[in-house]
Design brief:
The protein has 408 residues and is mainly α. The protein has one domain (14-202, 222-407): Growth Hormone, Chain: A, CATH 1.20.1250.20. It contains 15 helices and no strands. It has helices spanning 14-37, 43-50, 54-75, 79-82, 84-104, 108-140, 147-174, 181-199, 225-247, 249-255, 262-282, 288-311, 315-343, 349-374, 380-407. Helix 5 (84-104) packs antiparallel against helix 6 (108-140). The N and C termini lie far apart (80 Å). This is MFS transporter. It is found in: Cell membrane.
């Protein structure tokens, strides 16, 4: 009788595992960001159920953004030494808890608490997932350019934000329990995301001596400080446009424009984020200078068209302006992420990206909260005119600084 030597099946090469991990984390990133915007097309339903105003919607949205900022300050950087997977698992746990609250506590206080928890989860996830994707990309394709990382990470971010409103709006339009079914669907996807993170390889080696914990400041490492300033101000301006659509746009379309469709509310927001994600995907072959100028021009032009649509009560003009502004915002944000990720040292990458997202999410809360306050005293169209004027001034400053840097 001869002995049969059975060789254990070898593990897949590290590059293959990192390649699979790259797409798993991209999917997790997309799902988590989609969940964060799922309530957006549902706000008019919450308003009718509880009778609160557009200003209250702004406050609910601001609570979410505050949660993101608090989380970025406290935990956005710790994955640099605790590991990417551990932080992602914790962030998904917070989002699952928020989903349970959305299902079981539908009154305004429950909505506020759930939105704050969602913000905490997103704040932990954004910088960590972005840094994780870059490291998985480099491990899978050593020596390759960063184009795939930039396209996929930005598309997962903006594509996820847009997909959340579209899925929730469609479900709310065609199911009998519109304030429950979307959250059930996303809870299932979030549970699957936990499994996906567990299957992805870790990319951070724990240091022999763990650094002393401190809250994250606005610290963005990199040798070119002008490039950092351009990146952070661009991201602030981009997220101000996104904040307008994820907070007030559905209520404006349902009220001022008299289109109460829940699906249309989701489509309205998806148009902006979808246009931004598409622009990020097709702008990769442009030179950085051309991409930067194109993003500035598109966002400025889109704001003008969008404001015209509001003044004339034209839904088509409003959506076209939103799409053009979304194109510009998407390109500017992609450029900002690429700049910070490429210039930050490896040991400071998560911290630097957390700093970028901290400023970007400030762009979500500050202008939109200002719009909500202004809407209590002046018509919404007037407050949007102010919003547009301030953003155009900010974009002009970014253009001047960025183009001077390019000339040098």
């Amino acid at each position: 009788m001869t002995d049969v030597l059975v060789r254990p099946q070898s593990a897949p090469p590290a590059s293959q595992r990192h390649g699979r991990g790259f797409w798993l984390i991209a999917a997790v990133y997309l799902v988590a960001l989609a969940f964060s915007t799922a309530p957006t097309p549902l706000y008019p339903l919450y308003q009718r159920a509880d009778g609160f105003s557009a200003f209250t919607v702004t406050v609910v949205f601001a609570v979410y953004a505050v949660g993101v900022i608090v989380s970025l300050l406290l935990a956005g950087h710790i994955s640099d030494w605790t590991g990417r997977r551990r932080v992602l698992q914790a962030s998904l746990g917070l989002e699952i808890l928020a989903g349970v609250l959305f299902l079981t506590w539908t009154a305004l206080p429950g909505l506020i608490v759930a939105r704050f928890l969602t913000g905490l989860g997103v704040g932990m996830l954004t910088a960590t997932a972005t840094a994780y994707l870059l490291e998985l990309h480099r491990a899978h394709r050593p020596g390759a350019g960063a184009t795939r990382f930039e396209v996929v990470s930005s598309a997962a971010n903006l594509g996820g934000l847009g997909a959340g409103t579209l899925v929730a709006g469609a479900l709310a339009q065609f199911v009998t329990t519109p304030l429950r079914t979307p959250y059930v669907v996303f809870l299932v996807l979030l549970a699957l995301s936990v499994v996906a993170v567990a299957a992805a390889p870790e990319t951070v080696d724990a240091p022999a001596v763990r650094p002393r914990y401190r809250p994250q400041g606005v610290r963005i490492a990199g040798p070119d400080r002008t490039a950092v300033v351009v990146a952070v101000v661009s991201s602030f301006a981009a997220f101000a446009v996104f904040g307008l659509f994820t907070s007030l746009a559905p209520s404006f379309v349902a009220g001022a424009l008299h289109h109460p469709s829940r699906l249309l509310a989701g489509v309205t927001v998806f148009v902006v984020f979808g246009a931004g994600a598409a622009a990020q995907a097709v702008s990769g072959r442009l030179t950085p200078a051309t991409r930067f100028r194109g993003g500035l021009i598109a966002q400025a032009a889109g704001l003008v068209v969008l404001t015209t649509g509001m003044e004339t009560a034209s839904l088509a003009t409003f959506l076209i302006g939103g799409a053009i502004a979304g194109v510009g915002a998407g390109i500017l944000f992609k450029s900002a992420v690429g700049t910070i990720a490429a210039n930050a040292p490896t040991a400071k990458r998560g911290e630097s990206l957390a700093g970028l997202f901290l400023i970007a999410y400030s762009g979500l809360v500050v202008p939109v909260l200002g719009l909500g306050i202004a809407s209590r005293y002046v018509p919404s169209t007037t407050s949007i005119l102010w919003f547009t004027g301030i953003l155009l001034t900010l974009l002009a400053g970014v253009a001047s600084l960025g183009l001077r840097r390019g000339g040098r």
